[in-house]
Known about the structure:
Keywords: Hydrolase, Protease, Serine protease. The protein is mainly β.
Amino acid sequence: MQLHTKGVLVVGHHLVQNGGTSVSPGEDANIEVGDIILRINGKDIGNMQDVKPIVKKAGSDGKPLSITVKRGDKKIKTKLKPVKDDKDNDYRIGLFIRDSAAGIGTMTFLRSTIKKNMALWAMSFPIWTQKKPIEINNGTIVGSTVTSIEKSSNGTPGEKQANFSVERDRMGKITKNSAFGIFGTLDNTLTDGKYNKPMPIALSNEVKEGPAKILTVLDGEKVEEFDIEIISSIPQKSPATKGMVIEITDPKLLEKTGGIVQGMSGSPIIQDGKLIGAVTHVFVNDSTSGYGVHIEWMLDEAGINLNGKETPKAS
């Protein structure tokens, strides 16, 4: 997946060396990691290239920047004075920023009857800051091929390594990033050969503690089935992302991954032939276990009303 933000995303602070001292202009302006810079000196910011010339001019003129950032549901205005860096003799604002991010996630479901709507889950996606999903302007979903696995261990989550090309392997577009997944539409119907038939779902009150399975990819593009245990499941009356606690029990999966790894988020959870949810978080101190989200909340976020009425929310 490749996502482009609305504005530019602040992903970190850095110190600027000036006159033999270290200063942090971004922190001094009370700009936080996770903020989205929307406007500078009255100009809309669409990408990182928009920022540098404004900073250079303000620095040369000795004037502070008027910055509008979005923090959650609030828009905040602040002043930031660029500082000349002794190392390269250029003006800096002491912020690391990004306007796009790319990473690997696992598709949870495809709903072909409503204009090929699909959903992905990407809780471990690297664009998350302070446990909040960033707002996106647009994004692309592409095919990927898993090349290797970095195993998880207690305290150190592993990850899937994969090859993909945004230009060559485009499969569709992404329209929404929320706490319940990444949603969008596909250009063409997908065929797997094994999981092509529609699958019924189970609501949260129908999920049972005990054996279940997950579907995920460990090598290439091959979808495989692995054993897990539902340790607990909460019958939820309102949307929440942590509805189940799961434990990986399959010896092959444990040997290959050490448990749950980044990139496995979104892997469908199946019990008694029904789709019940998707893998979300790994427990940092126990890589064999983690959380799952109930499928009904992903469907609700996608605008699929389980009472029979569909209202487009995701795309």
